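User: Hey, quick favor. My workstation is busy. Could you predict this chain's structure for me?
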Amino acid sequence: MQVMSVRDITEHNQAQEALQIKENNRRKQSQTLVQLARSKTFQQGNLNAALREITETAAQTLLVERVGVWLYNEERSKIECIDLYDVSTKEHTFGNSLLKTNYLAYFQALEEERSIVVHDAGNDTRIQELSESYLSVLGITSLLDVPIWLEGHLVGVVCYEHIGKARQWTLEEETFAGSIADFVTLAIEASERNVIQSALQQSEAQFRAIFERSSIGIGLIDMKAQIVDTNLALCEILGYSREELYGKRFTDYISTQKGDLKLYKQLVSGIRTDLERTSRVGFQPSEHHEQVVERHRIEIERRCLHQNGSLVWTHISVSVIPGSNGEPEFFLAMIEDITERKQTELKLLASQEATEAANRAKSEFLATMSHELRTPLNAIMGLSQLLQQQIVGSLNEKQNEYVNCIYSSGEHLLTLINDILDLSKVEAGKEELLLSPLPVLEICNYAIWTVRDRALEKGLQLTHEIDLEADICIADERRIKQMLLNLLTNAIKFTPAGQVSLVVKKVPQGITFTVSDTGIGIDSNQFQFLFEPFKQLDSQLNRQYEGTGLGLALTRKLAHLHGGDVTFTSTLGKGSQFTLFLPNPVHPEDEGDEEATSCPAIPQNQMILLVEEEENSGIVLQDYLQTIGYQVKWIDNGNKFLEEVQNLQPDIIFLDVQLTGNANGWDLLNILQQEPSLQDIQVVMMGFSELSEDKLSILQAGANDYLLKPIEVMQLESILTRYLSCKGNS
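Assistant: No problem, here it is.
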């Protein structure tokens, strides 16, 4: 009996991915503008250094091959390249020039159009003159040229050169390119004025450029929490005009949580603390400065109150802007509308919980039904055996044929039921292994002998080769036999002609059992479904070959319980090769041996502290970790976090980012880092939000790694292998 629940969420996932990509690009562009606006290079008045930073940052943000800045000469007879950054070589060059008399159409377009947007360079009349001498030579397929204006005059152009498949420039990219041109203008102005006047005027120009062009809401707030200025994007998020927001308290529009006020106070006090430190040791604009900047920003997700009464989910980044004396003067709040993403996350979470509930119900149902089926099936097989022995009377030839068919069918059905029970038990985390040293030769001989008749019936050559060094393995005897039989039976089933072989080798980390065949092979497009239960890779195979698709799924799960794995290679039409890996046994006398280089694969008395608020996630992680051999302590809040860490001294901590209450995951991590005796404990953060650039700051803050929820088994196993496989066991 099979129970299957399927829901097609392809379109939903595609829409979510497209939305995420768009949000990431927009955020990346805004962050680039903020980065340039805060750059000290502009204030120093070094034009070459500023242009190098602008072209390099712009090329990396828009993912183009080259970005160049070209300026008119004094006679306006040509434009000259003063900086060209090439991504592939990571080099800056200059010196090329284009004469106006040779490229009249291009210069006319440059002077008359707001920007030159070329999606297909081979079919645009404005740049035909550039084709042979420039575009074709460099392989440029798409072009985006944005004029540089200075005091109302056209002084040059910022050129974005794309190589490869023709590119469709988006409106957001054109807007971003215009912002970059504004920064070039600022760099030119800064180089022509004295340092003091340049710093004052540039600061305002940069800030206004960000305000007016950013697609993210920006608010300038004084130290009394009153709004001083806003951009149009923030007005749209809140539904008010600038005049209506001016002078109002920022916190009146933002939902607050317990502890928010403390965060803002820490933000302000951090500025003063670093001001005092700087006055004592002098300012060092290097790594220390970068750490200060990170500490002077908080990132939170809060709901904002719209003018129409609705609530808008937002991501808020708050920084402190110090005055000329170094004292905090303003808060800079960057607010992004994430309502659509949040709604999608909530739907996905609900869907995930429903799926988990359905899976639990499926496992319980399968286990119950399998047990219920065993009783009548045992009677059927027992009675059919009595009939075969003709104890109650002789049978004619046809009756004997029927009885044999009944018994063989019952035997096959019993095998399927046992597989279902085993898989349900493993998935529920209730499978217990009885590990012991086993002779490899005897195990392999048993498996070969068991499947020999089946191979002979199909005319297959069955061979085996066992490495003499592979004498002993540590495993559950019943389970290792089951794993080998599953692999061998599968190979024989899908091999019409040729041979099936079993090769056993000793490797540094353990022992490999490789089953190879010359069968039908597997299409590479189907690899991802290979270890899914109740799934055969081709619907036509369901009719040609018997089975439920449980064998490989169960084999890999049993291998994982042993600390090993099942891997494969396959070529359609030529055959497949499946390799079962079992790790080396862990000998107690090896502990403390400084010369040992291999890492124990089976955990021994290693303690994991799991801090997870959500009950379902906590149960799943705890059960799985305990099943594979770890000691696990699970707490659902941070109230006694420090006390538990000090008492348990765990080998690793899995810490949920989104804890509610007095302290979230980041707060607990900070508390841990303030305790000298606990700073060496490995910490893995867990959360629903994607982390990219922030990951570096997380590592700097004291975390070793980050797991994205929902957590996949392969990800979790990778973390455990990376951080616990080589730790000494107590």
